[in-house]
Amino acid sequence: MNATLLIVIFVAVMVSLALLPWAHRTWTTGRKTSGDDQTAVAPLTTRDSARQDCGLGDNPSEESHRDMSAPPTSVSMREKLSKARGLISERLGGIRSGSIDVSTWENLEELLILADVGVNATMDTVDRLRVTSRASKVSEGTELLEALKNQMKSDLSTDRELAYIAPSGKTPVWLFVGVNGVGKTTSIGKIGRRLGDQGLSVLMAAGDTFRAAAAEQLAAWADRCGADFVRGSEGADPSSVIYDAVQAAASRDVDLVLADTAGRLHNKVNLMEELAKVHRVANREPGQVVEVLLVIDATTGQNGLSQAREFADTVAVTGVVLTKLDGSAKGGIVFAIERELALPVKLVGLGEGDGDLVDFDPTSFVEALFGDD
Amino acid sequence: MFESLSDRFDGILGRLRGKGRLSESDVAEAMREIRLALLEADVHLNVVKRFVDRMQARCLEAEVTESLTPGQQVVKVVNEELTVILGGESLQLSYAQKPPTVVLLAGLQGSGKTTSSAKLARWFKSQGRNPLLVGADLQRPAAVEQLQTLAGQIEVPVFSSPGDPVKTTQAGLAEARRTGRDVLIVDTAGRLTVDRELMDEIAAISDAVDPNYTFLVVDAMAGQDAVNTAEAFHATLELDGIILTKLDGDARGGAALSVKEVVGRPIAFASTGEKLDDFDQFHPERMAERILGMGDVLTLIEKAEEVFEQEEAEAATQRLLEGTFTLDDFVDQLRKVRRMGDLSNIVSMMPGVPKEIKDSDIDEREIGKVEAIVLSMTPEERISPDIIDGSRRARIATGSGTTPARVSNLLKQFKEMRKMMKGMAGMGTKAKARKDKGKKPKKGKKGPGRARGSRAQSKETLEIPILDVDGLDLTLPGR
Description:
The complex is a heterodimer. Chain A is 46% helix and 11% strand. Chain A is an alpha/beta fold. In chain A, strands 3-2-4-1-5-6-7-8 form an eight-stranded mixed β-sheet, sandwiched between helices. Chain A starts with a helix and ends with a helix. In chain A, 52% of the residues are buried. Chain B is of the alpha/beta class. Chain B has three domains: 5-86, Up-down Bundle (Four Helix Bundle (Hemerythrin (Met), subunit A)), CATH 1.20.120.140; 101-291, Rossmann fold (3-Layer(aba) Sandwich); 302-471, 434 Repressor (Amino-terminal Domain) (Orthogonal Bundle), CATH 1.10.260. Chain B is 56% helix and 9% strand. Chain B has 22 helices and eight strands. Chain B has an eight-stranded mixed β-sheet with strand order 3-2-4-1-5-6-7-8, sandwiched between helices. The relative contact order of chain B is 0.09. Chains A and B meet through helix 1, helix 4, helix 8 and helix 11 of A and helix 2, helix 5, helix 7, helix 10 and helix 12 of B.
C-alpha cells in the first residue's frame, strides 16, 4: 500500500476524529458552542471490565417459592399456542379475503416482518413465492398463503437429531449458551426432566458462576428431576466447575452432562473468550461436547441473528433451543437463523413448568406463525 | 458486515450533492432507506409507517431540499425527530406524602426485573433514601435468593414470604411502614401477557399496594412483539415509565421507540451492564442514533474522546484548515490515532469516508515508516518542508530506512493535503455565503466572501466533513 493513500487516510481520519466529538455535539444539541454543553452520557461501552464478583448466596433455608413438585404435564404445541391465536392480525383476514392483488403481497410481507422474520429473509421468501406462484398460476389469497407456508416449511432444515451418545465412548456433554435471561437454566431443568423420564441418568453442572444465586436455581431443578448436581465455590472459574462436573459424571457413570453457563452478550469479547475456554475444557477427557445448544428467546428481534452468528463462531453451535414461544411473540427470527446459518432449532420451550418442552416441528411452527384455524 | 445508515445515504444521495434541490422521488427513496433501517432496528411496523409518513412531509421542507448535503440533512432531521419521540418530558420522580413511595416492577420473563430492582434500590439510596426491597417473585426457583444476594452488596434489606405474591407484597408494605423505610421496591415474577391468570395476579398486586410508580422492564433486544407486551401491561397496570435493559449489547433497540410511542410514558432508566452501578438515566439522543444504526459512530467518538483532548484537537484542526498545519502536528495526530486501535476498524466506522479508502488495506508498518521519515527531519525541516533539497532528502531517507523517492512523495502528498483541507474550509464558507447572499461569490474579488473565508475557523460554517472524492488526488506516483 502506498504512502499516498496512507496519508490521505490519516489526514481524513485525523480531521474527522478531531472534529467528530465537537461536530457530534453541535449536531445533536443544535447549538454552535464549544464543548461545554457536554451532557453526561451513560457510556455504552462494548468492552466489559472485570466482572464484579456477585458471589453466590447461601443455601436457601426456607421454601420461598411455589410448590414445584407438581407432576409434569405433557403439552402439545397447539394447546399452548392457542392463547396466541387470539392475536392474529387483520392482515391474515385481508390475505384470505379474495383474489391476489398488491395489498395481498404487502400483507404477506408485513405478517412476516411482524413475526420477526426480518426484512432480508422476508424479501427473499416473498420474491421466491412470486416466481413460483406465477408459475403455478395461484389466483386466490388463501391458496397463496398455503403456498407460502409450504415454501417456508421446506426451507427449514431437516436434521434435528439430538446427540445422546459420544461416538468415542466418552461422557457426552450438552453445553447451554446464550445471552442473559433467555432461559438456559430453565431449559436445562426441563430437558433434565425429559431425559430422566426416558431412563437416562443426568448430571447438571452449575457453570454459571457469575450471577447471584444461579447455582441455587439450577440446584432446585436438579432436585426436582432427581439429577446429579455439581457446583463450584463462590465466584469460581466456570471452566473448572465444568471440568469437575464432567469428571464426576464419568466416575459415577452418568449418561449425560447438562452444563449451564452464564448469560453473556455476544459483543463482549472477553466473555466470549471465556466461553470458548469453557467449551475446550468441557471437551477434554473424559468428556465430549456432543451438543452446543444456543438458547434464543422467542421475543428477540433481529439481534437474534447476530447472537447466533457470534456464538456459532465462538463455540460451534449445533442447535437452537427456542424459548418462551407460549407468549405472543412468533419467534420468526429462527427462520432467518436456520436459513442464513443452517442452525437447526431442535427444541422449543413453551412455559416454565418442567414438562413444557417439545421437539421443534417446522409444520407447527409455520402454522403458528400465520395463526391457526 | 453491518452497513450504516450514513453509508446508505452517501450512496443514494451522494449523487445529489450539489444538485441544489431534492425532488419528491428523492425524498421517497430516502424514506425507503429510513423504513428499512428502522425495521432492521426492530421498531414496530406500524410505528415505522407513522414515523415515515411524518418524516416525508418534514423532508420536503426547504431545510432539507436546499441543503448542500441533503443526505446528511435527512439523517439529521430523522435523528432529531427520533430524539424528540424518545425523549419528551423526562420522569421527575417525586416522593409520596405518606411514605413509603411504592415502586412496582413488571415485565416478561428474563427482561431484567430482579437486577433492575436492586439497581433501583442502589439508585434511591444514592438519592439519600432508605429503600426496602420486596421479593415477590415466588415463581422462579431462587429468585428471592438472587435478590437477597444483590441487595446484600448494597446493604438494602429484602422482605419476602412464601405463598402468595399479593400477600407478600402487602406484608412488605406493612414492614416498610413499620421500619420507617421511605421507598418500597417490588420485584415481581416475569409473566406473559397472554397468561390471564398471571396478569390478574399483577393487577391484584398493584391494587393491593397502590404503587406510586409502575415500571415496565423491557429488554433492548426485543422484537416486534414488544408493542403487544407494552400495550397489555399498560392496559392492566397503567405504567408510569419504562426501564430499558441490556443496552450493553449491540441490539439496535428499536423496541424502545415502539414502546415509547405506544405507552406514551418516559423511558426512565437505562441499564447498561450486569453490575449494580450500570444504571443511569436514559439519554434519548444516544438511543436515537443507535436505532438509526449510527452506533458505530458513537463508539468512534468515544474512542476519539479517550485519546484526543478536545482543545488540542480543535487547535490542530484549526491549523489544518488555515493551512498552518505542520509535519510535527501530523506526527502528533498520527500517534494519537494509532493509540485508538486497529486502524482499518476505525476507518470503517467513519461516516463519509469514500468506499475506495474504506476497502483498502491499511498496513500498520507503513505508518511506522511515515513516522520515521518525519522524525528523521530536523525541527526546521518539519516547520518549513520547502527547504528540503536533494541532500536533505537523502539524509532523511537514510535516517528513516526509506528511499528519497518516498520522502519526496510524502512531502508532496502532505502539501496536497494541506491545500485540500484549506479548500474544504473554503467550501464551507462559500456555501454559507451563497446561502446568505443568495448569489454566487464573484471570482477574484475580495468581497464579503473572502472576508468570510478568513474567518474559516468559525465553527458555524462547517458541517460534518465529508471527503469530496473528486477533489482528492489519488493518483499513484510513477505507476
